[in-house]
């Protein structure tokens, strides 16, 4: 069997920026174990697989460790592949996923994801968060991930996490965030449970970060920077119960997977 493979830097204006994702278009679903093995072989934070269903596409995402419910950068990468390489000509792509219907719209500023907004709720500080991050946040919020709020961008950029400690936490990951200098807010995202110690740019994390910062800063349009080593910029908008995230994508490679799944 031959499968097309694309690797795309998402939320990037140039190569070697943003978050690399693998994209594998399919005619029909492969066994879950095969898709998981491909994701492990790719060894990127996410590999996306999609299958056309009527006028939409079923979309699934796998880390090297497990399938996940939502992934922003690999959705952006999948849309880029459809628009640029697979002849998709409409302005909006509909994806059907474990997180419901998601859309990606092509515009002058890039590709805009329409994702569900998730408001994180305040909670008591956990000693494991302080130990794992090596610094004490001023606040801790709970969502599908922990959100650790710091006073300054310098604190977030200077974090040196203990990933063995963070891996023992009972939630998927930890999002560290603070007000930015040149941006409305900055963040770093740690997911050692998924074999992704630090994710370069995390669209799904901004489903939680944007509602928090929109309320705190009193505005619905924000510019965010994920302050990983690679880094990436997201144009963000809170639109009711949805978050709109805009970024660009740059192709890194195209290839072929050769396999015998029998």
From TrEMBL:
Pfam families: PhzC-PhzF. GO terms for cellular component: cytoplasm. The keyword Hydrolase does not apply. GO terms for molecular function: isomerase activity. Keywords: Isomerase. Belongs to the PhzF family. This is Phenazine biosynthesis protein PhzF family. The lineage of its organism: Bacteria, Pseudomonadati, Pseudomonadota, Gammaproteobacteria, Chromatiales.
